[in-house]
Each structure stands twice: as structure tokens, then as C-alpha cells.
Amino acid sequence: MSLIEGFNVPMEFSSTSGSCNLVLKCTADIIGQCPAALAVPGGCNGPCPIFKTDEYCCNSGSCGPTDYSRYFKDRCPDPYSYPKDDTATKACAGGTNYKVVFCP
């Protein structure tokens, strides 16, 4: 799950196989609290599509969290919030089944 490009629909992503207990979700009111610079009708863009700079897009391969990525991470800690966000890496074994719920 990723917020790098932005957010428009709350969702929950969970494993349904007994061997892996993984639940990722983002149900915060991101659109209602979206920073003005990122706000678009019906959503909240990520900073890369708006500003198109290395700081936000990480084109050089060397970047860290920004105020905007922290905005997303503070509200939804599970998804990726910037390109090198290794805190969001989660996985189950191959063959795991998943359930995706929009607007949980």
C-alpha cells in the first residue's frame, strides 16, 4: 500500500491465509485535512506529482522523509509515504490470499 502518489479512498488490505497475519490500512481523514498545496478535488496528491523535485520524487536514489511524507505517515503509518520508506515493507509468503476493502 502506498501514499507516495497521493490518497483518494480509505482502504484496508489484509491476509486471509492462516499462516500470515497481516493487516495494513489507511482510514484517516486525509482528504479533509490535506495540506492546501496538495489538495485536489476528491483527493490529496502526493508531493512528487505536484512539485516534481528530487526531494519529493527521489530520482537520485537518495532521499528521506519530508514534512509532506510525515503528514501522511502520522495519519496512516502502514503504507509507504515516500520512495525510500523502508518502514512500510511488509510481506507474507508466496501463495497467501488477500482481501482488499475500500471505505472500511
Relative strand content: 15-25%
pLDDT below 50 for ≥5 consecutive residues: which ranges? none
Number of strands: 6
Mean pLDDT: 92
Helix-residue proportion: 10-25%
Main sheet properties: 3 strands, antiparallel
Walk me through what this model shows.
With 104 residues, the chain is α+β, with helices and mostly antiparallel strands. It has three helices and six strands, in the order E-E-E-E-E-H-H-H-E. It has helices spanning 47-51, 54-57, 67-75, and strands at residues 6-7, 11-15, 23-26, 39-40, 43-45, 98-102. The strands form two sheets. The chain has a three-stranded antiparallel beta sheet with strand order 1-5-4. Strands 3-2-6 form a three-stranded antiparallel beta sheet, with no helix packed on it. The longest helix has 9 residues, at 67-75. It starts with 5 loop residues before the first strand and ends with a strand. It comes from Corymbia citriodora subsp. variegata. Keywords: Disulfide bond.
